[in-house]
Amino acid sequence: MGDPVPLNHQFLLEALHAASSQSQDLVQQASAQLKEWEKQTGYWTLLQDAFLERSLPVELRWIAIITLKQGVDKYWRKASPNAMMKAEKQNIRARLLSSSIDEPHPQLAVQNAVIVGKVVRLEYPLDWPKVFTDITAIIRQASDATATSAGTDEQATLRLTRSLSILLHVVKELATGRLTRTKGNLQSITPEILKVLGDVYVRHVQLWQGLVSQQQVQTELAQQMMAISLLALRIMRRLIVAGYESPNRAPEVNQAWTLLGDHVWGFFNAENDVVATPEINQLLRKHVINIGKVFLDVIQNHQAAFALLPGTLDLMGRYWEVVVVHGEVLAEQSKNTVMGINGASNGGIVEDETKQERSKFREKVALQGMLLFRGAIKMIYNPTATFKYRHKVEKEEIKTATTLFREQLFTPQTVTHCMEVLVTKYFILRQSDLEGWSEDPEGWNESWENAVESYEFMIRPCAEKLFNDLVVNYKEVLAQPLMGVFNSIQTIAKDDILVKDAVYTSIGLAASTLHQHLNFDQFLQETLINEIQVAQPGYNIIRRRVAIMIGQWVSVKISVESRPTLYKIMQHLLNREDALNDLVVRLTAAHNMKRCIDEWDFRLESFLPFVDDIFNKLMALIEEAEQTETRMGLLDVIGVIVDRLEHRVSTYAERIVRILPPLWEQTGDEHLFKQAILSILTKLVSAMKGNSVQYHNMVIPLIRFSVEPGSGMQVYLLEDALELWEATVRATPAPASPELLELFPYLISCMELASSTLRRVLEIVDSYVLLAPREIIESYRVQLFSSFAMLLGTLKPETTGIITKIVEVLIRAAKQMGGDAALNVVGMELVSSEFLIKIFATLRESYEANLTTGPHRKHPPHAVMVTDYFSLLARIVLANTAWFTEVVRMVAERTGQTAEEFMTWLLEEWFGHFLNMGHPSQRKLNCFALTMLLETNQKWILERLQDLMIVWTDVVNELRDEDGQNDSLVYWKSNADEEETYTGPETPERTRRIQLTETDPVHTVDASQLIKHQLEKAQNENGGGRVFAENWLVNVDHDVLAEFAKLKLA
C-alpha cells in the first residue's frame, strides 16, 4: 500500500480534475481520495478555496462546491463523527456570502446559496447572529443601485439577484423546520425582511411595467427586472406562511395582501393585452401563478387568517369569474368536438401556439380558483385539527372567518351556480381527451382511473373534487337543483353526447345525495338499458359513462332485484363484437364490474348465470391488453370474482391458469405484475381447496422462483409467494407430493432472515407439520430445531407460541407414528440443538426473578411465553413420563444439578405459575402433566401433594358442566353434530386440525377420571391407602383436603 497523499491545494486540484474526467477508474480513485481527506482538518476550507478560484474550469468548481455541500450536511453539526473544527467552520462561514454575491455562473451560485441555507439553520442566531442583517444590507444597497440606474447597472442587478437567491434558500430551510426554536428564529426576523422584500418587489415591478409599456421594449432588461420581482415574490410567499402565527394581525402582511390582490388581476389582464415577447409573457404568467400560490398556501396553513385578510371575498369572486370564463371557452370548444363526433366539419379551427399557451395559463389560474374554493369549504366543514392551545382571540377569529364564508361566500345561490358551472362547463370531455382515448386507449383509461389523485395539478379531477365537496356539505341546497339537472336528460338532444355524458357524470358523483330523491332502479330499467343499445357514432362515450355510473351507485342504492340487470349491462358492454364497445369501454366495464361484485349486497346466486360468459370476455380482454398496469387491473377483477365464487371456481380454473404462465414470462422483471399473478393464484388455490393439487406443477416452481435466496426477486415477491405457499400447503390433501416437500428447506432459509414475514413462515411450517409430520421429523428435524433454538428469546410471545405449538404437534406425531423410540430421537435432538436448554433456562430465569422483591426486584419473562413453555413440557410428560425424566436428567447434567434439585425448582415455578394460565385447555393440559408425574413415585412430586390437590380442585370445578358431571372440554359426538353440515368442502388442513383435536387427551379424557386413576395408582404403588396417607397425605392442609374431598374422586 502506497504512502497517503498529503492534503494541499495542488493535490486537491489534481483530485478534483480527476473526479471530473471521463475515465471511470480515475473518478473512482479521486472519489476515494476525497473521502479519505474528509477526516483531515483544513480539507473543507481548501474546497471552498477551489470554488472561489474563478480561473479554474467550471467543472472543477462544480465538484468542489457539491462536495462542500455534502460535507456541510454530514459534518457541520458538533455531534457528527469527524465534525468540522470550530475554526474551520468560522473560516467557511465568513466567506459564504461574499463568495457568490457576484458569482457569474448561476448553477454554482445556487449551490452556494443552498449551503448558506443549511448553515443558517444550524448557526442562527447563536454563532451567526448578523447573517440576516448582512443579507438585507446587500439587498438594500443593490436594490437602491438598480432603482437609481433604472436597471442598467449590471453589477448591482447581479448582486441583487444572487443575494435574493441566498435569502430564498435560507428562508426555505428555516420554513421547513419543525422545532419550536427554528420556527421562532424565522418569525423573529420575518417582519423586517418582509418590509425589505416588499420594497424590492414594488420597485422592480414598477421598473419592468415601465419598460414593457414602451414601444421599443428593452426585452433583456425587462426580463432581468421581472426575474428579481419574481424572486422577491417567492420569498414573500414563504415568509407570509411560515413567518407568522396569525398573518392577518400583521400590518405588513395586510399591506402586501392588498398589493398582491391588485397585482394578480393587473398582471392577468396584462398578459392578454401587452404585446411583448414570449419570454416576457411567460414571466408575467409566472407572477400570476406565484401570487396564486401565496393565496393557496395561506388558506392551507392559516385558514381563518385567509378569510380575515383584506379583500378576500372580492378575491374569491374574481377567481370564480376566471373559472366561469374559462369554462365558457371549454364549452364553446366542445361544440366543435360534438360536430366532429357526429361527422360534421368542426370548422378547421386550430389554435396557434400563443393561444394554446394562453389557454393553458388561464386553466392554471382557474385551477387555483377551484382549489381556493375547496380550501374555503374545508375551513367551514373540516377545519385543520391541532393540539395547540387556542386563545380566546384565536377562537373568535375562527368563528368570525367561518361565519363570513358560510354566510357571504357560500350562499345558496352561489352554491347552486358553482354546481351548474362545474357540470355544464368542466364535466364535458375535450377534444384532447377523445384524441387520447383513440390513440392510446389503455394509457388513457389508466390515467383517468388514477386522475382523482392529481386534483392539485389537473382541472378535471379538481372540478370533480370540488363538486363532491359541494354535494356532500350542501345536500339540502343542491338536492333539488341536481334533480333538475337529472330531469334535463329528457330534453338533451340525442346527438349532444358530451352534455349527456356531463349530466351522467354529475348523477354518478352525487349518488350519496341523490339516492333519497332518485329511483335509480327505475332509471336503470327505463333509460340506461336503452342508452347502451344506441348504435349512433360517439355513443361509446355514453356506454363508458353508464359503466362508471353503475359502479358509483351499486354500493349506495341499487336493489338486489336489479342486480341481474346490472350484470346483463356489464355483459353487453364487455362484448367485443359490438363496434361501439371499444377497448376503453370494455376496460371501464371490467373495472366497474369489480365494484358490482365486491360490495355488501352481492348475491352469488343472481351472478352465477352470467359467470361463464363474463369470464370468457375478461380472459379475452387480458389477452388483448398490452400494458402491464391494465393487465394487473384485470387480474384484480378476476381475483375478486374468484373470491366470491369460492369452490365453484373449479369450472373456470383451467381457463385462468392457462393464461398465467405466458403472462409470467412476458412480464420479465416487472415484479408488480408477478405479485398480481401470485395473488390471483393464492385466491384460486384457496377457493379450490383440495382440487387445487392438479395445478401444483405450475404453482410449486413459481413459489421456488420467488423465495429462492439470490434469485433477485425474493425481496419483491417473498410476501406474496408466502401467501401462495401457505394456501397451497393448507389445501393439499395427505400425502404430500415430493415436489411440495422439497420446498421445505426454503422455509429454514426464510426463518434465518428473521424479517417481518417470520410469523407467516412459522405458520407455513406449522401447516407442513400437520400435512407430513413423518417426513419433517425424518428429514428436517435437525435444521428445524436448530432454527427454532436460534429464534428463542428474540421474538414476541405470540410468535414464540407458534414455535412451541409446532414442537407440541411433532411430539404427538412422533408418539403416534413411532412410539417411544421416535420420542427418544426427537428428545435427543431437542436437547442437542439447545432448544430445550433455552426453554429450561428461561423458566429458571422466571423462577429466580420471582424470588426477588423490593426495589431490586427482577422482571420475569412474559407470562404468556412462560405458559407456552410449560405447555410444551406438559406435552412431553403426556407423551411419556419416563422420557420426560430422562430429558430432565440430561439437561440437569449440563447445568451441574441433580435431577432432584432440578425438579424441585421447576415444580416450584410450575405450580406458582399455574394461576397465571388463563385458557382452560392449557390449564387442563398442565394439570394432566403434573398429575402424571405421580407415575415417577419420586419424592419431589409426592411432597407436592397439597399443590396438586389445589390444582385438581381448581381445574375440575372449572371444567364441570352445569350438571356437575361431565368435563366441558371433552367433545362428545352426537347425531346432532353429524347432521350439522357445511355447504362447501372443508380445506384439507381444517380436516387435519379437527382430527388433531379429536385425538388430543385434553379433549378426549375426562379430568376427574384421570386424576382419580393416577391418585389410586400412586396410593397402590406407595404402600397402599393407609401408608400413603401417613407418609404423604399427612402433609396436606385440612382445608385443602376438605375441598378436594368434595370432588368425590377418592
Question: Outline of this structure?
Answer:
It is built from 51 helices and no strands.
Can you put this structure into words, describing what you see?
One of its GO terms (molecular function) is small GTPase binding. This is Armadillo-type protein. It holds the Pfam family TPR_IPO11. One of its GO terms (cellular component) is nuclear envelope. By secondary structure, the protein is mainly alpha-helical. Among the domains are: 311-339 and 355-384 and 391-499, no CATH class; 754-917; 921-976 and 985-1049, no CATH class. It is globular and about 125 Å long. The termini are far apart.
Mean pLDDT: 88
So how many helices? Answer: 51
Task: Name the poorly predicted regions.
Answer: 345-349, 974-983
Beta-strand level of the residues, as a percent range? under 5%
Percent helix: over 70%
Q: Describe the sheet with the most strands.
A: none
Give me the Rg, rounded: 39 Å
Number of strands: 0
Bulk shape: globular
Distance between the termini: 87 Å
GO molecular function: small GTPase binding
Pfam family, one: TPR_IPO11
Organism: Sphaerosporella brunnea
Protein name: Armadillo-type protein
